[in-house]
Design a protein that fits this description.
The chain has helices at 2-23, 26-30, 54-67, 126-133, and strands spanning 33-41, 49-52, 70-80, 85-95, 98-110, 116-123. By secondary structure, the chain is α+β, with helices and mostly antiparallel strands. The protein has a single domain (2-133), classed as Roll (Nuclear Transport Factor 2, Chain: A). The longest helix is centred in the first third of the chain and has 22 residues, at 2-23. The N and C termini lie far apart (50 Å).
Length: 135
């Protein structure tokens, strides 16, 4: 029964994190990250790489938001157990007057407190995403 409670907690924390990011409350998002978080960004765009630690992830978020005019994530569903949380969503971005929409799947490995320990984002079209945020 404890696992169900942990899974539900992970879903709630994840919902809170996406809502905070959408509203620009980066401090609330940072509180949901483990100190030793690792944030993986795939592809060949300007944000690609493994970002290790809260400071590096905060810098990543800053660069991400500077590249864009607007960004919004519409969460369709969140599936969780005590070891993984999977988010299915649509990501809408605008940059330099152009808009794009992606289907995304985020995979989160939470720590024992439910904070994000490791994060991976998968795009329906990584190349299209990289091109959109590259100059």
């Amino acid at each position: 029964m404890a696992t169900m409670g942990v899974a539900q907690r992970n879903i709630e924390l994840t919902r809170r994190g996406y809502a905070a990011f959408n509203s620009g409350d980066i401090e609330a998002v940072m509180n949901l990250l483990a100190d030793d978080v690792v944030w993986h960004v795939f592809g060949s765009g300007p944000l690609a790489g493994d970002h290790k630690g809260k400071q590096a992830v905060m810098e990543l978020f800053g660069k991400y938001l500077q590249l864009l005019d607007t960004q919004a994530t519409d969460v369709h569903d969140i599936l969780a157990n005590d070891q993984h949380t999977v988010v299915m969503a649509t990501l809408a971005l605008t940059r330099k007057g152009e808009s794009i929409e992606h289907k995304i799947t985020d995979v989160i490995h939470p720590d024992s407190e439910g904070r994000v320990q490791e994060f991976w984002r998968f795009f329906d079209d990584q190349g299209k995403s990289d091109a959109f945020i590259s100059d």
